[in-house]
């Protein structure tokens, strides 16, 4: 049976966007499926996607809940990461390691250039945090990315990152855990050094490169386009094994501990703080209060968690939610039903 892939992608994207827009409200109000104050109970406007209300199911919650194994932490503060590598011009720091996703901080000195690489089956997401990176990506006009740029490299597309200007470049890079780099023979004529569990061999590969589309664009200048330009925050990458979703809102008082938020059955979720401050309650951990831009927060598989925008009331904040599933399952407490 032939399946219209465009239709499936559009449906998945709409569902992801609908859930993403609802997530901040659910996390703070704890009311899945309940209309907010002043909401209409009639049918939605034509063309607007509204996710269906949650349904009751016997839902497996990991017991005991997953532990934080190194390098994973509930709260990686950027200031601590930078201090760990003080005095070094070039360094990398592992931040996320789970069965689905790996993510690291990288700093590269002025004039540095990464080897040309591609990744076999999944997209790469990059957030530039300081300095200037010239991004050379096959099929895309080269561009210079500065603080706040979000970059999407499709599968099997070779790319390099070159530090331009006089300052080091610092960026956060996210991959699917299953991907091991490919090295184009044209730019790496000698056999690369093997990595654990893999031996490099010169072979032909099939499938062709991935592409960009209306949902997955080469880059987003978040501070210019969203913070300064008024563009709407939302999903930046929505792919088979990678969801990078910008969630933006105003700071409000931290919800009470009784508001558990939700949990995920089969995967970890983490957030990159892009703007403002983020409060995060994670089951079994002290409340994280006012995480700052550049910090990374993680809720392990099966743990209740509830993120909200912290800092002075009314201050705008953005958390970039990252997980492997654009339509990932959220488990809510029965008590949250109907709560206003």
UniProtKB/TrEMBL annotation:
Q: Which SUPFAM superfamilies match?
A: RmlC-like cupins
Q: Pro residues composition bias: which ranges?
A: 42-52
Q: List keywords of the entry alphabetically.
A: Signal
Q: Does the keyword Metal-binding apply?
A: no
- Chain spans, region Disordered: 32-52
InterPro entries assigned to the protein according to its UniProt record, in alphabetical order: RmlC-like_jellyroll (IPR014710), RmlC_Cupin_sf (IPR011051)
Compositional bias, Low complexity, is annotated for 32-41
Question: Where does the signal sequence lie?
Answer: 1-22
CDD domains to which the protein is assigned, alphabetical: cupin_RmlC-like (cd02208)
What is this protein called in UniProt? Cupin domain-containing protein
Which species is this UniProt entry from?
A: Sphingomonas longa
Lineage per the UniProt record: Bacteria, Pseudomonadati, Pseudomonadota, Alphaproteobacteria, Sphingomonadales
